[in-house]
Every structure is written in structure tokens, then in C-alpha cells.
From TrEMBL:
GO cellular component: cytosol
InterPro entries reported for this sequence: Class_I_gatase-like, Peptidase_C26, PuuD-like
Stretch forming the signal peptide: none
Protein name per its UniProtKB record: Uncharacterized protein
Provenance organism: Dorcoceras hygrometricum
One GO MF term: hydrolase activity, acting on carbon-nitrogen (but not peptide) bonds, in linear amides
Amino acid sequence: MAADLSVILPRVLIVSRRCVRKNKFVDFVGEYHLNLIVNYGAVPVIVPRVPGIHMLLESFEPIHGVLLCEGEDIDPSHYESEMANLSSEELEEIRSLHVSDTAIDKEKDAIELRLAKLCLERNIPYLGICRGSQILNVACGGTLYQDVGKELTRNVTEKQRMVHMDYNNYDGHRHPITVVEDTPLDQWFSDSFVDGGREVLVNSYHHQGVKKLAPRFVPMAFAPDGLIEGFYDPDAYNPEEGKFIMGLQFHPERMRQPDSDEFDYPGCPFAYKEFVRAAVAYQKRLISATCVPKSLKLNKEMEKRRRTIVKSLSVARNMSRYGHGTKSVNESEIKAGAEFLEANTALSPQQEARLKQMGATVRNGSFYLERLNLREEKEKLARNLMGKMSMEQLLDLLSFYRTMGKICSEVLEIKQHGLVSHQTT
């Protein structure tokens, strides 16, 4: 039994992260992400990080949303050729300090960049958390800091300097951000601002971040050192209509009270809530676009009428094309098609006027029947007469026959609907 598409929850793709456990690779996705997606009414579909999966993404269709989060540094070859003018010593220092993050995973890069570009092409809802926000920026032509500490923080004052990653306090670490007015983040956290400010404390766990923001995006928040902590595409943000393209550098899903699932702020889960809302709306749009209405079944009277009209115009077509097959034709058969065209009200006035002219031309076929007296020898004369018609006249006739096939079913359907409505009232 086929499933009812109207009750199937939207599918949100999430790419897993690979790690080593007991000397074997293990794929995982944090439960905070999965729980929020499920709680707000979508189904998380985990895309495993295995070789070659980036070539099989079509098998995960339909895709109603993509959530990307967690993972190693993105291969810098995807966004800049030089290593940000960092010395070899500095690069080695970064690798030593961030061992688990600097081990680039090219397969994961390929999977996630392909998904991000797919979302951008089709306007599929996309939420990027931490690495997912960086993937989104890179997919649109933006760049990243190779290391925030080496490239950004060293150029700011002591007061502005921020710690964006605390290995000893993963969930508990917080730093302030300033939210930009009139952005989604502003709407979600507005009730939590104090003393007339626009600051909240957020959890972060990253050593890279947005350097040059892609042109299509608008910043939503900044850290004191100037790092962009959130951005979105204002032209692709309307969850009610299935539009949502956003990246958050911080982790709202981990901003919870100690030993509790209670969030630091009421606005923390809103990114997931609105993202799923957009996925639901996007799914409805896809279903509406792919649902094909059932063909209309005519009653006996309408079907008989349709056959008469089709036969009438078929006879007229044969007369115009071949000049034969007219021995058993009477005037009423020809008039049926012309009268149908003249009675049609589904077309524009210009189309009606043109088809009436063609209908008159069809009716003139009866004049040929009378003149030729249905004699076999006169068929040749009929062919000769049509041979003398101008190209414009012949093209008009051909255009008429082609148009009829299209409009006949359309008009009959309109009339049938009118008949059904009349019978039910």
C-alpha cells in the first residue's frame, strides 16, 4: 500500500563525522542535533562519511533540508591558494595545538560542499552549525581564517581578545557576541538582552572562522574580536515559505544549564525550530509540484459529444490535406467542429476571433461538397482547388487542426466541471 505523502515527515540530511574507536573508524552525529530535529517534526537521515558517498547523494532524495555540523578543518584549497601568509613554524604550531581538527577529511569536504551547493541551487533549507557555517560560506565563494588566534586575535586589543575554544571546558565555555538588529537572531534572543544591550553569551568550539563573508550573506552577530558568529541570506529566509539559508559559528544546541537540559536562553533552540518549519513548508511545495491531478472522466453524453467534434475536425483536416475521403461526408459533420470552436469561451478574444475565422473556413468545405456533387472525378478538382490556396490559408488550416487537439480537452473539462457543479447544486 502506497504511503500518504501528506503525513510523511520531511527528511533532513546530516553528514556524520568519522573518528577512531577501538582501532576502528566509527561514524557519529551528536544527539543534541538529532533530538531537536525530531522534536520539531522532521526525520534526520544520516549520511555516512564513507568513501564514494558524495557520488551517491541522489539516492538520498527527496531532500527537504540539510543540517551540517561538526568536523575537521576544511581543506584550504577550496577557498584560497595560499596558507594566509602563515609561516611553516606557525602552521606546525597550529597542527600541534589542534590535532583532531587539522586532520583534513577530503571525503567529508566533498560530501558537504556538494550538499551545500545543492541547497543553494534548489533553495533547500540549510542550517550550518560551526563547521557547517564555514562550509556554507566557502560554497558561496567566501574564505576562512586558517587559525583565528594567529590571524585575527593577534591584531586586536587585550580587551577584544577572545577564546573561541576551550578543550578543558567544552560545553561550559562561553564568550559574548553582539547581535545585529533586525536579523533572525535578534528576533530569537530579543527577550534575553539586558541593560539595553544586544549581547548574549554563547558556546563555541572552533579555531577557524569566516574571514571574507560571501557577498550573498548578511552578518547576524559578531564576537568582540570582530569574528562573524552568525550570518544568513535575507533573500532566502522565510521559513513559512520553505526558505532558510543560515550559518551559526556558535553552538546553540549546547547552551544548557549545568547538569540540565534547560537552555541558557529561550531563543537557543529557535534556529532548529525555524529550520524544521522551513523544511516542512519546502516538503509541501515539492508535493504540490509533483502531484498530478487525475484525468477527468466524461459521462456518456459528453463523451459522445467529444467523439462527434473530433470526427468533424478530422474530416475537415482530411479535406484540406488530401482532398479525398469526402464521399460519405455531410454538412452537419463538418459544422459540428466549427460550431464547437465558435461556442468556446475559454480562450482570449483574439484567439476566439481567429478560430471563428478558421471555423468559417471549415464550414466552406460544404460549399466544395455541393459544387463537386461527391463525384470521384471532382476529387481531383478539389485537390487542384486547394492547391491554388495561398500558403497563409493552408497554414491557417494546419494551425487550426493542431490547436483543436489541445483546446478540445481543455474546454470539455471546463464544461464537464460546470455540469458536475450544476448537478450537485
